[in-house]
Design a protein that fits this description.
With 577 residues, the protein is mainly beta. It is 4% helix and 35% strand. A five-stranded mixed sheet has the order 1-34-35-36-37, with no helix packed on it. The N terminus is likely disordered. Bound molecules: calcium ion (CA). Calcium ion binds next to loops.
Length: 577
């Protein structure tokens, strides 16, 4: 009895999973730091992450008085959580020169998981490595994907029933999306779930893919299809269901996938599978026949809500496509969905099925048209959080974004390269890439929040998921960067891409903290832990010298300038009282 009580206590003060709990609420019961004293937070210690340039997207983990995190180039480090003193550091020695050109969407790593004394780390070049948490020595290594096949691994692995679950990124390149389960003790692969069907002349890997193949046409499989799995997952231990979000189609326009009017399962969906076998139990497709890069991989958040007097076990998602979805997570049944951002691609969702009423103009052709949200999305990878006391979900969002689209009629499939299949452009910029394109068509009618010329676009939205309405909104954050954390101290913490750490009261959104961390850009989400009676807030951020995918191999990196801010891991604590 005593033992289990102390175990529960230890768990509540640590942070061992990406989203804190299998339900991925990012709600901490810690309340030493609260709405009355948060303004007194001061830096406890900082750690120089190293020179790898780019965004720091990882959520640090804390277990056994040690803080573990990982850099954008997948270097793992372990620090004394009270002092920041390095315990060990492990470099997977990724061949950055060759891998860089295979990274479709940024050199990133969103984090790791702790499991029975192991630190399980995804490596951008396709490896999954388990390290001894005490020593940092590798215990096993698995191969999830190969960079030669245009895949990268950027998401945090999750644990479901002693299995490590991980997916692959890369759907802007020719890839066939999948996610895998590995035995957490040995690294042996248990199963793989492809999100889109393969060559129909060969046996389908499972009955779900046979069904999915009916929603594709022609020789689609030669273009690989897309449907990458690069962020959102959650696990309901009671229902024993694992939930996984799937990405966009490749190429982007459904017409180039020869799929006009077809759903293209299981793109832009949430799939629920049994963790023992990878068997599909249900799916819900947010965007049938996606043509707008509306990955549905954003965070999946599980909670029990009372809706219309009934207790419902729900799964929630603030989708890139601008709608906030509430689904029954046992059946996959649609409960509700409303726009939390400006939406022009669809006029709304069917109340029964949740299927979108896609505006016909949104199916773009030769003429450029502006569609909201943008391909960056109304919400992207930065975590939202759910506070059971306020009943609110805190979404880092872009509520007025848009992108222009036109089909690239000259599209030819390029193996191993970007295959978006669209022409972009900014027609309002003279001489810009869109300058020679036909005039832009008027955008379809908008739904969602009223966006005036002075409305801040990058915001924190406090969303009531039961009534599907916004309760309050604050400036700052945005769809990329701006991750959140909420606590029992009636607080919402948020990082701002300009390097600030802010906190609001969770109920009313009153600002109680604003720290300039000194970092610039590339802010990872905040997390919290308690050690020796003190509560801490930690985050990683900063960019260093950034070079893009097109950076020539075997060329020395540009030298840092006087203004270069290198990445750091920062930890804050209440000032001594
Ligand atoms: Ca995408």
């Amino acid at each position: 009895m005593l033992l289990s009580a102390s175990l529960a206590l230890a768990q509540s003060t640590d942070w061992t999973n990406y989203g804190l709990t299998p339900e991925e609420t990012r709600y901490s019961p810690l309340a030493q730091i609260n709405d009355k004293n948060a303004g007194q937070l001061k830096l406890a210690w900082s750690y120089d992450i190293g020179k790898g340039g780019g965004t720091q997207e990882a959520t640090p983990l804390v277990w056994n008085k040690t803080l573990f995190s990982i850099t954008n180039w997948s270097i793992v480090y372990a620090l004394d959580a009270a002092t920041g003193k390095e315990k060990w550091r492990w470099d997977p020695e990724v061949n950055q020169d060759t891998v860089r050109s295979k990274v479709c969407c940024g050199v990133a790593n969103r984090g790791m998981v702790v499991y029975q004394g192991l630190i399980i780390a995804p490596i951008i070049d396709g490896r999954l490595v388990a390290l001894d948490a005490e020593t940092g020595k590798p215990k096993w290594e698995a191969r999830v994907s190969w960079p030669q096949d245009n895949y990268t691994v950027t998401m945090a692995p999750r644990i479901a029933k002693n299995k490590v679950i991980i997916g692959v990124a890369g759907a802007e390149f020719p890839t066939r999306g999948y996610f895998d389960a590995y035995d957490a003790k040995t690294g042996e692969r248990s199963w793989r779930f492809y999100t889109v069907p393969g060559d129909p002349s060969k046996p389908f890997e499972n009955p779900a893919l046979k069904e999915a193949a009916k929603t594709w046409a022609g020789d689609f499989w030669k273009l690989q299809g897309g449907g990458s799995v690069w962020d959102g997952m959650a696990y309901d231990p009671e229902a024993d269901l694992l939930y996984v979000g799937t990405g966009n189609g490749g190429p982007w326009p459904e017409e180039l996938r020869k799929s006009k009017g077809l759903a293209n399962l299981y793109l832009c969906s949430v799939v629920a599978v049994k963790p023992d076998t990878g068997e599909l139990k249900w799916y819900f497709q947010m965007v049938p026949g996606d043509s707008w890069d509306f990955d549905s991989v954003q965070q999946l958040l599980l909670a029990d809500l009372t809706i219309k007097g009934q207790k419902r076990k729900v799964l929630m998602q603030a989708n890139k496509n601008g709608f906030f979805y509430v689904l029954d997570r046992l059946s996959g049944q649609f409960i509700s969905g409303k726009p939390f951002a400006k939406v022009t691609w669809a006029a709304g969702l069917d109340e029964k099925s949740g299927k979108p009423f896609v505006n016909k103009e949104a199916y773009y052709g030769d003429q450029l048209i502006e569609i909201s949200p943008s391909t960056g999305g109304a919400h992207n990878w930065p975590p939202m959080s759910f506070n059971p006391s306020t009943g609110l979900v805190y979404i880092p969002g872009a509520i007025g974004s848009s992108s222009t689209f036109a089909i690239d009629r000259d599209f030819v499939y390029k193996p191993g390269e970007n295959n978006r299949g669209i022409r972009r452009g900014a027609p309002t910029t003279p001489g810009g890439p869109g300058a020679n394109l036909p005039a832009v068509l008027p955008p379809p009618p908008a739904i969602g929040p009223e966006i005036g010329p002075d409305t801040p676009r990058n915001v924190l939205v406090a969303w009531d998921p039961v009534n599907q309405v916004e309760r309050w909104r604050r400036t700052g954050g945005g769809a990329v960067g701006g991750g959140t954390l909420t606590t029992a101290g009636n607080l919402v913490f948020q990082v701002i891409p300009d390097g600030h750490l802010v906190a609001y009261t969770a109920d009313k959104g009153e600002k109680v903290l604003d720290i300039d961390t000194g970092l610039r850009g590339g802010m990872g989400p905040p997390m919290t832990f308690q050690l020796d009676g003190k509560q801490y807030i930690s985050l990683a951020g900063g960019t260093g010298v950034v070079v893009g995918p097109a950076y020539p191999p075997n060329t020395p990196l540009p030298a840092p300038t006087a203004n270069t801010v290198f990445p750091k891991l920062l930890t804050y604590v209440l000032e001594a009282r």
